[in-house]
Design goal:
It contains nine helices and 13 strands. By secondary structure, the chain is an alpha/beta fold. The strands form three sheets. It has an eight-stranded mixed beta sheet, sandwiched between helices. A three-stranded antiparallel beta sheet has the order 7-8-11, covered by helices on one side. Helix 3 packs parallel to helix 4.
Length: 331
């Protein structure tokens, strides 16, 4: 008899976020941010096709340690994470191309627990391509992709099984304190007692090294930052000239975070046709485009506890550059 061989299971796709909703969100966020003082834009709009390629290049730069540090932790401890979580379902928030997921999927498969993978992201095209590829690479794995926003659609994550919900890359640091609290409380409310949450966080370290990670010598991060202006030009009919803005990365000691700004190098007027909005940037006026909060293990544990989580384990990278934390909801 021929032994049974697992066959690929066709992936499924749930769509909770349409292209129209994304366009409406951009209009709303851009209007609110451009009229704020100081002006600001959410970092989610960095990631069009060009922005995603630039960020991929950033992760390979010598100055940018977070991606390498997180990957070291995953390579060294993914099996520990799988065993300690006891999960048969991996859910990844902001999954993108799902590249990092493979380390966790391999570990869960190796310990005999893997049955389902649920990637969530706002891009249906990228998500479907990744889901199709993974379904082929992991025969027998049920891939249930969800197009949605982790700020709004956590309650749409499919239930069942023991779930390991992963939020990788230090992305939680892009949220301000109030946003982080709301996200964590909302997540806690959607989790069962046996579910686990795995979060990657960048740690506080030498200030000069932190700044260099966001202001590389090759200027790739500067191009990445300025690319958001090209997004506004294309999507909202704006007439920003990226060359009239300078990339600035600074350490905010009080808030314990890196801030990325675009600073106008001349007084200029901007028209945003899609918003029927006329703006003036003074020479030297800066617009906030991203924050990246850095944590201490003690501070992170306290913040998680305030939002209803109990820490199961923490895994630092060499030199305490980066930290991955496994926790569960307090019940």
């Amino acid at each position: 008899m021929t032994p049974d061989v697992a066959r690929p299971i066709p992936p499924t796709l749930d769509v909770h976020l349409s292209g129209t909703e994304l366009a409406t969100a951009l209009e709303r966020d851009a209007r609110a941010g451009l009229l704020a003082s100081p002006k600001q834009l959410p970092p989610v709009y960095f990631y069009d096709d060009r922005g995603s390629r630039l960020f991929d290049e950033i992760t390979r730069l010598p100055e940018y340690y977070p991606t390498r540090s997180e990957r070291w932790i995953l390579d060294a401890h993914a099996k520990d994470m799988a065993l300690l979580s006891g999960a048969d379902t991996l859910i990844e928030l902001g999954a993108g191309t799902c590249e990092k997921s493979r380390v966790l999927l391999d570990a869960m498969q190796a310990v005999g627990l893997l049955s389902r993978y649920v990637p969530l992201d706002v891009s249906d095209t990228v998500l479907w391509e990744a889901a199709t590829t993974l379904a082929e690479e992991y025969p027998g794995l049920a891939v249930h992709a969800v197009v949605g926003d982790f700020h709004r659609h956590l309650d749409q994550l499919p239930p069942g099984g023991r779930r390991l919900i992963a939020f990788l890359g230090g992305t939680i640091g892009n949220l301000g304190p109030a946003q982080r609290r709301r996200f964590l409380v909302d997540l806690d409310c959607t989790m069962d007692a046996e579910d686990r949450f795995l979060v990657g966080t960048d740690l506080v370290k030498d200030r000069d090294r932190l700044v260099r990670a966001y202001d590389d010598d090759a200027g790739v991060t500067a191009e990445f930052n300025k690319n958001v202006l090209s997004v506004l030009n294309r999507e909202l009919g704006a007439d920003f000239d990226p060359d009239r803005f300078d990339h600035v990365a600074v350490w905010n000691e009080e808030a314990q975070r890196i801030e990325m700004w675009l600073r106008s190098n001349a007084e200029q007027s901007i028209r945003v046709e899609g918003l029927d909005l006329d703006l003036v940037f003074g020479e030297g006026e800066a617009m906030l485009t991203e924050i990246s909060t850095k944590f201490t293990p003690e501070g992170l544990a306290a913040e998680l506890a305030e939002c209803g989580f109990v820490v199961d384990a923490m895994w630092p990278s060499p030199g305490d550059d980066f930290l991955m934390t496994l926790c569960h909801p307090y019940c």
